[in-house]
Amino acid sequence: MSRYYDYVLGLIPAALLGVTAFLNLVGLSLTAAVPVGASVALALMGHAMFVRAPLDDAARTSDAAGTGSRSASAPFAGSGSD
User: Fold this and answer.
1) Residue 78 zone, left/alpha/beta (φ > 0; ψ -120 to 50; rest)
2) What is the pTM for the complete model shown?
């Protein structure tokens, strides 16, 4: 999984500069191309943070075993009656 984050770290500036340069070469003004390139870089960061979020070793092993962090009898932590 660390390779994925290495690629993402390399793709962030590449997307920002590459998309901006490509759109500028195609004919879009620089002031319009920079926000588009930045939104592509932001989408990469959002994907890395929320879609393929980094997990610690305990969560990775429990998810691989099919036992999530929540049990079926208590779906929400701390929702018991006191």
Assistant:
1) left
2) 0.64
